[in-house]
Structures are given as structure tokens and as C-alpha cells.
Specification:
By secondary structure, the chain is mainly alpha-helical. Helix content is about 45%, strand content about 5%.
Length: about 425
């Protein structure tokens, strides 16, 4: 079979994920590839508990298989250290025919069959949200692999080869043999800056949500509740939607024997955590439940969806649904900031994502409200206090102020 000029997708979505591959052009007449494909299937299936993790592992294994078969013309079971290094260099600068300018589905349904989407590409060039709004579009020639993406290549590929070793398919993990991994990573003197909203930006955002709820409660009481949840309880967007492992419900707010209120959720890494509920969050819950014609506070074990499509009985399952709601608040707030003469804040807000609200809530609790970092760590679900400490601006403020008045003539005074 002639070598394909462009890759074709191997793995479908989580809901359509299966090992049937008899019609895939990458595998036809290649029984040895079929075996490797099955090994990859077994590995990726281990991560089907989280949609985001599944997508990440699927992407990296798909890239590795395509490069191995179409570029190196080898078996994944015979790759050496040098091959992995060549693979990483390839990912940093793939051919244009392997790069797309938008994210599209890997497979589409045609005549009741799932077939490869010809528009799909292994790599995607992109522009940030603010530039896209200005009419700037992605350019294949400007594709660049981020530091985060390079780390994911190492993490997933090494995990895959460890799996193959455990299965007895190989004897050595070639990724672990790369001694100078540091050459692929940019060294940082300090932790990366955590993106978050300024006090003014957040005040404009929550004011927009409050006004929307007042003008159109049928549509926007939920908007106000969502903004409050994300900020006050540091929730990730994935923790607001239903998945196979977790369905957020009103009953996940509960009162303990001390009359303290808590909220339980399942987040990153499929870990359950309990979050303290502030008085203002409890007030927001009462308001939203009143809008839904429910009792002021949930009863133990109540299964009412935490967030439903308007007044529906089903739980929201799409993070995109939440993103659009939050984005409307961001867009309206940015417009108002600009009209009030705060162009710099407006420009920065155009780059904001939903996750910034989690960062902002954590930062404000530490720097403005003085919550103990250990309490914030537990509510945020951080694995280490060192992660939480990255949100602490007190030392940065002292460092800035100590250097603020330095001048070239200071020695003459």
C-alpha cells in the first residue's frame, strides 16, 4: 500500500470509542500495525474516566502512531531513544500538510457509519481569542508547540511505553533513556504567572451578571449562579457538567452536625473533595432555588440537577454550554470597561477564559481576604501547598515596592 500523504484519524470520541478498524486505510493490509493499534486501544481505555484526560492521551498516542508508521516507517515496538528524539523534533515542526487551522471532528457520520473526516489534521495552528475577534486567523507557517504540549508528549509517551513493558511487549522504555530532557524545556527562574482578573475586571463582570439576571431572570438567574459558583468555590468548568462518573446535584450542598455548609464535587484526577460554602454562596444558592420554585435550601440526598438547560430536568453535559454563558459576561464587561475609559483592562479581559475565575477566586481569598493558604489549598483541591503559594502576591508586592524607587542617581544622595 502506498504511503499516505496525510494522516487519517484512528480513534473516535469517547462515546464512539471502539477497536473496530477493518476499514481504516492506515491498517488495511498491515497486520503488524493492527496488533500495535490494539495495544494503543488498551492503553487509552484506561483513561476513559475523564473526558479531558482521554482526549489528551488519545491525541498524543495518535500522533505517535502516525509518525511511527508514516514517517519513520517502523513499529512502535522497535523505537529507540534516538527515534523518540526525532519524533519530538518532528512535533515541534510538522509538515504543513499535517497542520490544520481549526479544530474539527476526527470522524463524521455518513450513511449511519462513522467515517474519517478529511478536514481533520494531527496538529492545529491557532490564534488567541482576542486576535480572532479582530479578524486575525490562524496561519500554518506560525504553528508552534507550547512548553505544556512538549511536556505532555514526554508524559503520555513515557506512560505508554511503561504500559507496553508491563504487557511484556517491550523490554525497555525508550523515553526514560533520554538523559537531557531539559534541552526541550525553557528554564524558568520563577513560577509562571497565573492568569486572573483584576479587581476592577471582576467587579464589572459580576455587575453585568447581576443586571442580566434582573432584566431577564428566566435566562440569566442561572448565569449569575454560575459566575458565583466559579468564583467563590474555585470550581473548574468540568465540575459543573455531568459526566459518566459524576452528576452535580443540589444535594451535593449539605449541612453537617455543626451547622456548617459544604459542597462535595469530583474534580481533576477523579478525586472527590469537599469545599466550604460561604454565607454569600449560600445566599446565592437560596436565590437561584427560589427562581426554580424549590425550597430555600436542598434537602439531604436531593437529586435536582445543580445546573439544567434552563428549567429542564437533565443536567448540563457540555462545557461549551458553560463557556458561552461566561463569555457573554466577559464580552459585555469588556465593552463597558472600554466605554468607561479602562481600555487596558478591557483589552486584557478579551483574553480571559472560564478558568480565570477559579484563579481569581483563589487569589482574592489569599491576597484580599487573608484566608490561610492551607484552607484555600483544601477547597481548591491542590495536591500541595506549594501550588497554592503561587497565588500569594504578598512577597511579590514587597519585592516590587523595594525596587520601585531605584534610580541612577541614588548613590549621590
Amino acid at each position: 500500500m502506498a504511503r499516505l500523504k496525510r494522516p487519517t484519524p484512528l480513534f473516535d470520541t469517547l462515546s464512539n470509542f471502539k477497536s473496530e478498524s477493518s476499514k481504516n486505510p492506515l491498517l488495511i493490509d498491515h497486520p503488524e500495525r493492527q496488533k500495535e493499534f490494539e495495544l494503543a486501544i488498551d492503553f487509552i481505555k484506561q483513561y476513559d474516566g475523564s473526558e479531558a484526560t482521554f482526549r489528551s492521551y488519545r491525541r498524543e498516542i495518535e500522533r505517535l502512531l502516525q509518525w511511527t508508521w508514516l514517517v519513520a516507517d517502523k513499529s512502535i515496538l522497535e523505537l529507540k531513544r534516538q527515534d523518540i528524539e526525532h519524533y519530538i523534533e518532528f512535533c515541534k515542526k510538522p509538515p504543513k500538510s499535517w497542520i490544520g487551522v481549526k479544530n474539527v471532528a476526527r470522524f463524521v457520520t455518513k450513511d449511519d457509519q462513522r467515517v474519517p473526516n478529511p478536514e481533520w489534521r494531527l496538529f492545529v495552528a491557532s490564534v488567541n481569542k482576542a486576535d480572532f475577534k479582530k479578524g486575525i486567523r490562524a496561519d500554518k507557517t506560525e504553528y508552534a508547540l507550547s512548553q505544556k504540549s512538549i511536556r505532555e508528549i514526554f508524559t503520555v509517551t513515557s506512560s505508554f511505553y511503561s504500559h507496553l513493558m508491563n504487557e511484556g511487549a517491550i523490554d525497555v522504555n525508550p523515553v526514560l533513556l533520554i538523559r537531557q530532557k531539559s534541552k526541550y524545556f525553557m528554564k524558568r527562574q520563577s513560577p509562571p504567572k497565573i492568569p486572573r482578573l483584576t479587581e476592577r475586571q471582576w467587579n464589572f463582570c459580576i455587575k453585568v451578571a447581576e443586571e442580566l439576571a434582573a432584566k431577564n431572570p428566566e435566562k440569566h438567574e442561572r448565569t449569575l449562579f454560575i459566575m458565583t459558583l466559579l468564583y467563590l468555590m474555585y470550581l473548574r468548568i468540568s465540575e459543573l457538567v455531568a459526566t459518566k462518573r459524576w452528576q452535580p446535584q443540589m444535594g451535593h450542598f449539605y449541612k453537617d452536625s455543626n451547622n456548617y455548609w459544604w459542597f462535595v464535587t469530583v474534580g481533576k484526577g477523579n478525586k472527590e473533595r469537599v469545599i466550604s460554602v460561604s454565607d454569600e454562596m449560600l445566599q446565592a444558592l437560596r436565590r437561584y432555588r427560589k427562581h426554580l420554585n424549590l425550597t430555600p435550601l436542598p434537602s439531604p440526598g436531593e437529586t435536582t440537577p445543580l445546573l439544567a438547560p434552563h428549567r429542564g430536568k437533565e443536567t448540563i453535559t457540555s462545557t461549551e454550554h458553560i463557556r458561552k454563558i461566561v463569555q457573554e459576561c466577559f464580552d459585555r464587561a469588556a465593552f463597558r470597561l472600554r466605554t468607561k475609559g479602562h481600555a487596558e483592562d478591557a483589552d486584557a479581559l478579551e483574553h480571559a477564559t472560564v478558568h480565570w475565575l477559579r484563579h481569581t477566586g483563589i487569589s482574592d481569598d489569599i491576597n484580599m481576604r487573608g484566608r490561610p493558604e492551607s484552607h484555600v489549598r483544601d477547597d481548591a483541591g491542590h495536591s500541595s501547598i506549594l501550588i497554592t503559594d503561587r497565588y500569594n502576591d504578598i512577597t511579590l508586592k514587597e519585592r516590587y515596592l523595594s525596587g520601585k524607587k531605584k534610580g541612577v542617581r541614588s548613590r549621590q544622595k
